[in-house]
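Q: I have 470 residues here and want to know how they pack in 3D. Can you give me a structure?
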Amino acid sequence: MTITTPTSPASAPSTTVAVEETPSWRALKSATTALQAFQVKDGSIPDAAHHAAARTHVEVITTAIDDLRPLFPHDEDYLAAAIRDLGRWAGGGFGVPDFLDSLVAFQPQQHRVDGLRHLVVFPMYTQNGSTDRRLEAVLVEVIWPEFIARLESEYTNALFVSLRLVDFTPGYDTNSAVLFPETVAMREVPTFTWGAIFQDREAARYRRVVRAAAEITKLDLPADAARMLDDQELTEKTFVMWDIIHDRTHMRGDLPFDPFMIKQRMPFFLYSLEELRCDLTAFRECVAIQRRLQGRLDDGADLDDAEREMREHAGLVQYAVLFDRIFRFAITGTRVRNYDGVGGQLLFAWLHQRGVLHWTDTALTIDWDGVPDAVMALGDAIDELYWRSIDRPKTAHWLAAYELVRAVLTPHPASAWARGLPDDVLAGAPKGFTDAVLDDEFPLSMFYEALEKKMRAVIDSTAGITGRDR
């Protein structure tokens, strides 16, 4: 995408600018990357010997932001605040950075316009990248087609922002596919008003991983599922539809107060169930959308373009949830409290044990007609767990959740939870329950052990991937 902006004065002819190709962006990116080498874990630069060079880099960064500001009139307040925050950080001797003012000024959820760009500069850590805070600079582009705008009016999620990566500093040359305000260095925590996901990265790694996994397992993909592997834009929109429903689900439904409990320490398989609950809710809702719109077509009604696209992507979301979970989530990352991994393992085993997924004669086959009801049955089981847990003590909920998972997945032979926790743990504080969970409480099955070895290089190759990569 290019941004067209008028030169000064406003009535002068327009100039078309590809921001990522401008000298200002290149200077900003280079200076930000150089500055990162001086920062320690909390984002500060404690070594005074580096301050002169750091100030020079900050001057380059602020000058570049100022040069680029006319290309982002919708972010004028934020970019002005970012320049002030950078100046205050440098002027204060590069202590722990505080970008609260610019974070509060940055409001991308107010500008969900397809193709609109943002220039984002914050000291932050990048989830699934690094826990160290570094100054990062990112050029992003909004993905917001008409059918998603229509969908959002039904599945209201005013905080959700869908983005495409254009260019970035090293913190995003990783597996990180989110831009969350809580990762920014700030003096106090404000009320967060947005959260962004890079659907181009999710779509690109999905396409690469699923293509390889389907070939390895000899899975014959349905035509629509195969089409996603050849069409990045189609897959991006599919992930936007999936995520907009998933994201809103975290605080909706019959919940044991706060199901995700970000600030509480709990057994990692609880996170597995919560993330899976949200994905299966998206799956269920997309089944309902697809059936409703198909029913209107069958009755002879006309669908407008947005409705047709919504119907198409509702079907594709079902493939995306299924394949991303069983092919990528299950075998990505370490085996240390890998809650997404357990969620993928659980979905695969659930479908296998209900006879809709088969691994026979070294080939994977799926009974597609039976998939929707089987997937939704797992969602119903998790919903039932949550509904009952409203009346349970916390640790009783944990034990019930464990029973749900172990009924499908085999625990590690050394598991204290599987043998039955001793009375001193059961009578003690919740911390004892959590401490007794093994890092790899539910190891990979033989199927997944073999698949992970064959897929390891493919999954590793997706670090830093964007929609431009093939």
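Q: Anything worth noting?
A: The beta strands are 3-6, 14-17, 117-126, 130-142, 160-168, 178-179, 195-198, 357-360, 363-366. Residues 232-460 form one domain.
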